[in-house]
Amino acid sequence: LAAVRGGLPPAPAGVTQPSLAVTVPLRFSPGR
Q1: What angle do CA 19, 23, 26 make, to 5 degrees?
Q2: Each residue of 2-32: b (16+ CB within 10 Å) or e?
Q3: Are 23 and 8 in contact (CB under 8 A)?
Q4: Average pLDDT rounded to a whole number, residues 4-30
Q5: Which among 14, 15, 16, 29 has most CB atoms closer than 10 A?
């Protein structure tokens, strides 16, 4: 996740966790 966070834009600590939970699956989605 650390590597993925480095590629994502800066986000508030309160939004980082939920954002990763949605961004990671989307980036690694089989459709893409």
Answers
A1: 150
A2: eeeeeeeeeeeeeeeeeebeebeeeeeeeee
A3: yes
A4: 59
A5: 16
